[in-house]
Amino acid sequence: MTSQESADSNQEILLERYEVQQELGKKAGRRTFLARDLQTQELVVVKILSFGNEFEWNDLKLFEREAETLKALSHPAIPSYLDYFELDSPNSRRFALVQSYIPAKSLEAQLEAGRSFSEQEVKELAKAILEILKYLHGRQPPVIHRDIKPSNILLTNRSGNSVGEVYLVDFGSVQTIARRSSTMTVVGTYGYMPPEQFNGRATPASDLYSLGATLIYLVTGQHPGDLPQIDLQIEFEQVANISSGFRIWLRQMTEPIASKRLTSAEDALQALEQPGNATQTQRKATISTVSTVEKPPGSKVVLNKNVNFIEIIIPAISSWKNLILASLCYSFLVLLYLFMPLFLIAWISHLDSFTIFLLALVLLATILYNILPALFGEMRLRITRQQISRTFNLFGIELYSRLPSLKQNISQLERTEFGIDNRCLIIWAGRRNYKIYSSYLASFSVTTSELNWLTHELSDWLGLPITKE
């Protein structure tokens, strides 16, 4: 057996340089080894991805992304990239990533060994990880770990009341916001993943949720997935002996609705260091003025949703005030674009009455094509797991639509205000946007309370915070 064929032997030498010492871990298609670099005599970690029956191309994509990400990072609490190479033989093909070795036990291993943590130690650990996340999320583009959990946090050199040195490892699930693809990839670990990550979407706030769930494990001694939940919120308070301020902070870190969660490592650090300002910090991070979360009484807006899609149907004219304003506006358009041009054409060209009649029909049809849906039709906004689309319908017939976009391109929910009592919710999907108006001037308009309700529902379903212009 040669060094290019197997890593089963502890004495195998990879690439005639890395001498395998022992196996550290194994899962489908991947193995991790402790090895010695024969050139430097330093211990290193070698991760190997093998082509086999369990191999999927997405595994290679994530493996290469981990290598690229580590190569671009430089932080004392993150393993350093050292090497990347292929191991080919007639019977197999493998890829290897070499990174620096950190001589420390994982948080999970220490918990299983019976180590307990005081509230002060848990806070110290939280601050250390948040400092690492500040570095990762502050990169351009931001780097999202997507798999923060006890087995991926290392601790060493504990002394006195200090929790010790803290490290974050295993970037095998890492994502950069700029590299989101159209294919949904769900990675992470059950119990530590926020709801939006199950939909294949992760933001910096997703890492905060995972950190919060990890800390809940520390203060309760129970896996977060085993704790009861109410509306997807982890109910940990009854089994956690911690201060009220820290309890509130952990709830804000693990809010299932991303728009209610602390959204940045900076805000989370500030809220942790100043518990009395935790709620205020959260309000600065997201819009908390959306007071109506239930459908307003008497609303004619239709909302349909399940785990696979959300659909909003808005009727054209929602009030007599809008109807009068729209009628006046359309009457002006008819005078401006129909009768005046016909009069000028007939006067200048001396056209016969039949030709004028045909022109009038064409112009009238064009105007009605735009006016009738605004008076009697509906706007339908629909988001599925694949795409977002907006159509305009009249008597059940689709007349025209906005070009659809991939759901994976949806990046922002923005609330704007213009003029007096005019508001708009904008769903940004790449360079395209899809708007819902609360305005007397818009044909398909909703009331302010309806806009608040729809904003909340979309934020909840998409797992996106609400930003304000």
Description:
The protein is of the alpha+beta class. The chain folds into four domains: 88 residues, Phosphorylase Kinase, domain 1; 181 residues, Transferase(Phosphotransferase) domain 1 (Transferase(Phosphotransferase), domain 1, Orthogonal Bundle); 123 residues, PH-domain like; 50 residues. 34% of the residues lie in helices and 27% in strands. It contains eleven helices and 22 strands. The chain has a six-stranded antiparallel sheet with strand order 1-2-3-4-6-5, with helices on one face. A five-stranded antiparallel sheet has the order 14-15-16-17-18, with helices on one face. A hairpin with a 2-residue loop joins strand 5 and strand 6. The N and C termini lie far apart (64 Å).
Helix content: 25-40%
Low-confidence runs of at least 5 consecutive residues:
1-9, 178-184, 277-292
Number of domains: 4
Please count the helical segments. 11
How much beta, percentage-wise? 25-35%
What name is given to the CATH topology of the largest domain?
A: Transferase(Phosphotransferase), domain 1
Number-wise, the strands total: 22
Q: What is the C-level CATH assignment of the largest domain?
A: Mainly Alpha
**What is the rounded Rg?**
29 Å
CATH architecture of the largest domain: Orthogonal Bundle
What structural class do the secondary elements suggest? alpha+beta
Overall, the morphology is elongated
Q: CATH homologous superfamily of the largest domain - what is it? A: Transferase(Phosphotransferase) domain 1
Q: The biggest beta sheet, please?
A: 6 strands, antiparallel
Widest sheet, order of strands: 1-2-3-4-6-5
